[in-house]
């Protein structure tokens, strides 16, 4: 049977293991698709768009209510100077049977509002997908830039070791040693900045996904190049067909047409049906309760030009909607063209930057070996390292720009978000 001391040691070891399990929990691994899924699930912008849609649905019910009768109950109480009390009650029903088509047009206008709200949900999803994709690639870019700076620090530290050995052997002056130490210190400063940029990028992505800022995540993807075979003409055609903004502009035109009909309804007669009943000095209706039923019609013959002004305003709103539709289509086309051309420009840069990075790496190796052999200088090594940093930075930036503009093109053409 184990001793009490052994039991205590076992419990202590178990507690330490359990604590380490929580402290060193594995990070959450996320692909781009999983990140987008989390953002669509958690980001409040989608819920906000959904609430706007719910509000628009209630607006349809509100408009439809105008076709139904309304009932009101009224009561009054009086006391005269002799102290006698009296009270009366009445119930009135009013039903507007016809108002020149105003109600029907208002209902159709409210339904168009629902369509607009639906398209706003689509827009919110597309924008959130792009924001998440941008955040995801920003993390990968900053991760790659951190690796570039870490490599620079390591290369310069290796070179510093060589310079230190040469200095101790009396081959080089102290100024060369100091310069090498300064270069290492500067590189370490850049590494610290790169680490901060990475941390900020992760924080931004977590914010987009509406996750706790302290969540430990690990992205499983890499910045890679995958050719996009879409042509500019195809992209523009898809955008005109799929973009929710284009569809919303068309809905705005339809809504403005309904607005003209609403304004024109004031030129037509309105017909209402009414009924009422009333009784006095009793709480509930009695046998001698009075009641009446009637119908009324009204037709505004002259309203000092109010109706004409409303029609003119509605027609102006229609003209404005048509102009805004043209403007929206032009803006969408320009957005497609800009993202497409930027993507193609980054694609061309990728080919040259990759070659430059490989040559810069070879040049650094030659400079390092030449310096070891005593035929080169400190400056040759530093210049070669700087050129390698720039070449790799350019390649990472080109990869980032390509993927980002490809994602922007997806949004610009209205690519559907599930």
Q: Could you walk me through the main structural features you see in this protein, from its secondary elements to its overall organization?
A:
One of its GO terms (molecular function) is efflux transmembrane transporter activity. This is Outer membrane protein TolC. InterPro entries: CyaE, OMP_efflux, TolC-like. With 418 residues, the chain is of the alpha+beta class. The protein has a single domain (44-75, 100-267, 305-412), classed as Outer membrane efflux proteins (OEP). 69% of the residues lie in helices and 12% in strands. Strand 2 (70-79) and strand 3 (85-98) form a beta hairpin.
Report the structural category. Answer: alpha+beta
Number of DSSP helical runs? 9
Quaternary: single chain
Radius of gyration: 37 Å
- Tell me the helix content: 55-70%
Q: Looking at CATH, which topology would you report? A: Outer membrane efflux proteins (OEP)
Q: How much beta, percentage-wise?
A: 5-15%
Poorly predicted parts: none
The spatial strand order of the largest sheet comes to 2-3-5-6
Report the principal-axis shape. Answer: elongated
Distance between the termini: 62 Å
Element order, helices and strands?
A: HEHHEEHHEHHEEHH
Average pLDDT confidence is 91
In total, how many domains does the architecture comprise?
Answer: 1
Secondary structure tally: strands: 6
Keywords: Cell outer membrane, Coiled coil, Membrane, Transmembrane, Transmembrane beta strand, Transport
Organism: Sporomusa malonica
Subcellular location: Cell outer membrane
Protein name: Outer membrane protein TolC
